[in-house]
Hints:
This protein is α+β, with helices and mostly antiparallel strands. Helix content is about 25%, strand content about 40%. Strand 5 (about 80-95) and strand 6 (about 100-105) form a beta hairpin. It is globular and about 45 Å long.
Amino acid sequence: MRKSSSGSPTSWTDTCPYADGVTVNVLTEIVIDRPVSVVAAYASDPDNATDWYVNIVGVNWKTPKPAVEGSLVEFTAQFLGRKLVYTYEVAEVIPDARFVMRTADGPFPMETTYTFATVGDGKTLMTLRNQGEPSGFGKIMGRLMEIAMRRANTNDLQKLKSILEAR
């Protein structure tokens, strides 16, 4: 794992297929100068996604709020020049530690995982992992999609850091 002392996001991409069929595994992390409780609460609330995810342009709850295991949330995104609409199911919520969403629909069945850990005095290490098996457009674009995802994730975490540290 690569780490940055500057608090800038670091990332790496694994491109080897895994036994469970995962062929895209993009992990990005950043240190945010805010307590875990603040970072986790903000990042794990889908209503905030349009504020810090560069490519997400809409959020539509399919089940009542808040996000709990089993909640369904539809996201609309612009990615690589295409409009993507997909529904995530919240798969796991461990307050102040882990938040996992999965989708089986759309052009890129994917799992998104956030983890949160205290580092230093009141700082949070947040990781953002996207993994899945692209199909259709995503499968054709292969490596380009991974590079674009890594770049987008890095930008997203930097934006999240800026928002939270400005509070």
